[in-house]
């Protein structure tokens, strides 16, 4: 029998003590499979390609848009007029993009001009091994994929040495690291066939790109090329309880959503949406504000002579996006009573946004109540929180764009340390419990 304290008071507790016999082995297996997904998908295009490979293996239909957003569907027993069960996450992550004409030569170096994508602390990306990834559409329409092998040279953005950093240290972080100075060092050997003339190092780099990919300088115009951290995701902590790697925001939720869809036995039709452009406001033809999701859903509804409006009104959605994990090294930015905690399972956030909940869908009490019943009924270890102190800052998710469609939506996701840095960190057990949470929604009866 529960004590009065146990009945009336609830304090979130670590998930480790709530695992069933043999479940830790499943946690570790899931973590290894998730790391493989991270390593295979360092860009949104690569994530879509991997999702399609896995969907084909499981016999799950998929809708894609420009190979940068994907919608996976498992038909349930109920008609679409009863609604969908949706997990929507995003597969884009902060990175360093190349400008349309990036390559130039200066003082014996070939350099690449960049434009950073998403909210980053720019100094994180200096003096850090980077690799070039993306696609190039050549003049004749040929699509060339650029993805370096494990043994290829890395690229880097240089920084001032501390011995001569007196002036740099006097500046604010924003002043010390302006965006237009994030130039990538790409080469230093002059072209051996050209004995005279300017830009011989630039020419040598262009010759290398032409030899490997068939591209010329003009082909940068129709390219999507970006710099991402080099290296693979790996275990973190002396106990190996965490995963350090690039792109946990938001591929930790994306992978959990995809896996849960493959493993569910749906009563309602289950939908996994992996969208692009969340880090810049969910804009564009592949973002959650676009008509891509509606067009795919409308096609399904038309086959059953059900209106999209009716389907959406009876649907329920988890906006799968990460939360900031409480960090004892920076405790002053958070409300410890209401912050996500690593190792406590996924964090449910009633509201995101900034300041006075600006930019948030602010889920209703009824929506959160249903979420509680789903998660508790499935034995998921979870907790609730907000993103830091009220006036400290904030962030958004795709939740409001689902809510605008008249779909009941609440945010839930993995707590993350070092968010938006080249190496983010998550707890393995949180990834597992998030998978269980998404599976509970898909298996809603």
Describe this protein's structure.
The protein is α+β, with helices and mostly antiparallel strands and 445 residues long. The protein has twelve helices and 22 strands. The protein has helices at residues 4-8, 23-40, 44-58, 166-169, 173-176, 200-213, 248-263, 292-303, 308-313, 365-377, 399-403, 428-442; strands at residues 62-65, 69-74, 84-90, 95-106, 109-117, 130-137, 143-146, 156-157, 184-187, 223-229, 234-236, 242-245, 269-275, 316-320, 323-324, 347-349, 353-354, 383-384, 394-395, 408-413, 415-416, 424-427. The strands form five sheets. Strands 1-2-13-3-14-20-16-18 form an eight-stranded mixed sheet, sandwiched between helices.
What can be said about the biggest beta sheet?
A: 8 strands, mixed
Strand content: 15-25%
Radius of gyration: 23 Å
Helix content: 25-40%
Tally the beta strands.
22
Widest beta sheet: strand line-up: 1-2-13-3-14-20-16-18
Number of helical regions: 12
Give the uncertain stretches in residue-range form.
none
Q: Taking all residues together, what is the mean pLDDT?
A: 95
Query: Given the helix and strand composition, which structural class is it?
Result: alpha+beta
* First and last CA, distance: 29 Å
Tertiary shape: globular
